[in-house]
Amino acid sequence: VQLQASGGGLVQAGGSLRLSCAASGSSFRFNIMGWYHQRPGKERNLVATITSGGTTKYANSVTGRFTVSRDNAKNTVALQMTSLKPEDTGSYYCNAVLANDTPRFPWGQGTLVTVSS
Q1: What is d(CA 110, CA 74) in angstroms, rounded to the nearest whole number?
Q2: Cα–Cα distance between 48 and 25 in angstroms, integer?
Q3: pLDDT tens for residues 39-53?
C-alpha cells in the first residue's frame, strides 16, 4: 500500500484545514486508518483513527476540534481540522493502524501544517 497525504498549509490560530490521504491497494477497506502528527524534532503520535465501519477515536489534544472520515470506495481518508492551535503545527501522515498505535505500512508522503499565533 502506498500512502500520500495532502492539504496542509499555513493558517492562523483558530482557522481550519482539511487534510486528505489517498491509499493504493485493495485492502484499504479492511484496515483501521489513522492520522499521525509529528512536531519538528519530536516523535510521531497518533491523533485520530477510524475503523472500516466508521467508528472514530481521538487523542485528547484534538477531541472536539478534529474529525476523521473515510471513503472506502475511493480509498481515501480525511481529517477536518478546526480551531487550530500553534501546537497543531507539524507534519501529518496517514497510515493503517495496528495494535499499540503501530503503523502497518511504510510511511508515505506527509503534509505540513503550520499554525501561526
Answers
A1: 19
A2: 21
A3: 989 999 999 999 999
